[in-house]
Structure formats: C-alpha cells, structure tokens
Amino acid sequence: MSTRRPMPAQPEAEPLRLGLRHNAAQFALLVAVNALVGGMLGQERTVLPLIGVREFGLQAYTAGLTFILAFGLAKAATNYLAGAWSDRFGRKPVLVAGWLVAVPVPLILIWAPSWGWVIAANVLLGVSQGLTWSTTVVMKIDLVGPARRGLAMGLNEAAGYGAVALTALATGFIAQAHGLRPAPFLLGIAFAALGLGLSALAVKETRGHARLEAATHATRVDARHQHLHDALTDREVFVQTSFREPALSSASQAGMVNNLNDGLAWGLFPVLFAAGGLSVARIGVLVALYPAVWGLGQLFTGALSDRWGRKWLIAAGMGLQALALAGMAAGDGFTVWALAAVALGLGTAMVYPTLLASIGDVAHPAWRARAVGTYRLCRDGGFAVGALLAGVVADAFGVRAAVWAVAAVTALSGLVVVVRMYETHGRARR
C-alpha cells in the first residue's frame, strides 16, 4: 500500500485583466524603464553638437547634423521592425534586444577618435531607441486597455522626455566642470546597465493582454472603417497608417513634423545659443527646458485627451509649436529663448501622447503593434528630414532662417490635421 502523499495543488495563474489599476506594478516598472531609455537619448542633447564644433572642427551645419540624420534613419526603420517583431516574437524579447544594442553607445562616444565613430554610435542608438521605446509604448497600450490610453501614453512619454531633460541638464553642468568627454557619458553607461537588468529580470510579457482585448474588440462597422478588420497584412497596415486612413495618416504626418522640430532643436539650438555667447551650463539649462516642459506637460495632456478628445488638442499643439519656433528665431538672449522653449515644450506635450493614443484608438489590437511601428517609422523619419532641411537651409541662409522654415512647415502640418483628421476617441465622438 502506497504511503505517498498527494502533491499539493499548484496555485492557478491569476487571470489577465486590462486596466491601469490591475496592472499597476508592471506599468510603473515600464515607466521606469522608459525613463532610462530617455536618459540614453538625453546624454547627447547638450554635449554632442558642441563636440562636433569644438573637438572635430565641423563648420558646415549639414555635416554637423549627420549624427541626427543617422539616428533618425536607424530609429525610423527599427520602429517599423519593432512593431512587426513584437507581434511575431513577443514584446519582452524585443525590449531586451534593444538594451543589448544600447550598451556600447556611451563607450563609443567616450573614445570616438573621429566624427565617423560618433555617427556609428548614433546608428546603434537609433536602433536601440526604436526597439526599446516602441516596445514600452506597445506594452503600456496592451496593459491599460482602451479607456485610459491617453493617460498611459502621457505617463510613458513624460517619463521618457522628463529623463531626456534631466540628463541634458546634468550633462551640461558635468561638461562645464569636467569637459565634454568622458564624464557626461558615464551616465549613459549606468542607464544601459540598469535598463538591461530590469528588462531582462523584471519586465513581463504583455502580448496576452493584447490578445485578451482583441477577443472582445468590437470592429467598427461604419463605412469609413469597414476595411479596418483584424486580418490586415503588413503591407495593408503600412498603407493605411501612412497614407490612406484619414486619422492614422494625419497622425503620421503630424508625428513626422513634430520630430522634425525636435531634430532641429537637438542639432541647432545649442549652436544658436553658443553663438549668442551663452556658457555650456546655460546652454544645458535651455536645452533641458524644452523637453522638461514637454515631459511634465504630458502627465496632464494625455489624460485630457481621454476627456476632451484627440483632434483639437493635436491641432492646437501644432499651432503653438509653430509660434514658439517663430519666437526662437526672432528672439535673442537667455530669457526670450527660455520663454520660447517653454512654449515649444507645451505645444509638443499637447501633441505627442495624443498622436499615439489616436493610433491606438483606430488600430485593431491584432495589428496595433504594427500600426504603432509604422507611425513611429514616419514620426522618427522626421529626425532625418529635419536634419537635411535644417542643415541645408542653415548653410545657405543661417540658423535663424532654418528655424523660420521649420516653423512654417509646422503650421502647415497643423492645418492638415484640422482639414483631414476626424475625432478618434470614442467618448468624444458621442
């Protein structure tokens, strides 16, 4: 007669549930991870344009902006792949892969013997940012479900760009005290180590949450959306998001212009401020002010878009960005530039999470990650477009003329949103 005791019953896995409250721990962890992603970008914002001029002797603006061109092209392409890979292989493997690519970036920037090495580092940074930032966006959308999507994107982007601002500010003061290299990039080494560790050991896969939402998703039946079913091919997702579907394509072009602005701010604002006689520390304050307001503002604007709707917040934000850029081009001195930076950050805060939320509103959960990837392909292609446009205009007519040109493009983009985009948020449509 056997005396073997029966095995204790294994606890059943807790069923998946959508919503911020039910997934608060993982959501907060992903917010922290995206802050580290932003820190990797922020390590360059103040210091790298000055390194190009002072250490490598770059005189042509177009040549000096090649690192942003390389970053933008790499990040845009990787954003698209990240969406497809997240649907195919899962979110977590893509996130971890992005951090592995990030590890050598600060080391290359510290030891780069020529500008070509800096460009190579920014290709790696673009790949890393495309994989990590895109995936944290998709994972948060997975977790919260449709009701709080704007709030989720506001928190995500606030963490990322708040970290960009803080790191840009810190590196400015570090560079003032210890030089442009290597001290500012030691922060990047720490960020990469923390991001990789948290992503590999603590972050959980969220693809199951997307499947849960897809199982209960009500496909739109009106004539405008009858083609947006759950079985679109990769090509169909790309075409709908980039060109055909009015809200998705309007968001994609607005996102591209928004990052065109950011590429201009990243590459030319430090040069403009230095030409105005400001110290590296004061340049760091101005460079940090714009993403700081951008980051903090998104804590409110994302949630407001859940209440007020997406379209008019986007259109108003693009208009405010255009006015701020005009003020930056026309003004002079620390105070005027600081006010313009605050306005530019506020306008960007109105636009950035709201665009992502509108993509999530329209895209079916079955192909939402691919839609987000396509949108981010278009949006971060703006870095490359901005580097080329700003560099060519600045070389021909000066830095201020480049800022004026981008202000005009931004105003036109806002007009496209007014004319072409419809309201995407369900409660606002009622």
From TrEMBL:
Residues 27-425 form the Major facilitator superfamily (MFS) profile domain. Its main location: membrane. GO terms for cellular component: plasma membrane. Gene3D superfamilies: MFS general substrate transporter like domains. The keyword Lipid metabolism does not apply. Pfam families: MFS_1. CDD domains: MFS_MdtG_SLC18_like. It is a multi-pass membrane protein. Keywords: Cell membrane, Membrane, Transmembrane, Transmembrane helix, Transport. The chain crosses the membrane at residues 20-41, 61-82, 94-112, 118-138, 158-177, 183-203, 263-281, 312-330, 336-356, 403-422. GO terms for molecular function: transmembrane transporter activity. It is found in: Cell membrane. PANTHER family: INTEGRAL MEMBRANE TRANSPORT PROTEIN, RESISTANCE PROTEIN MDTM, PUTATIVE-RELATED-RELATED. This is MFS transporter.
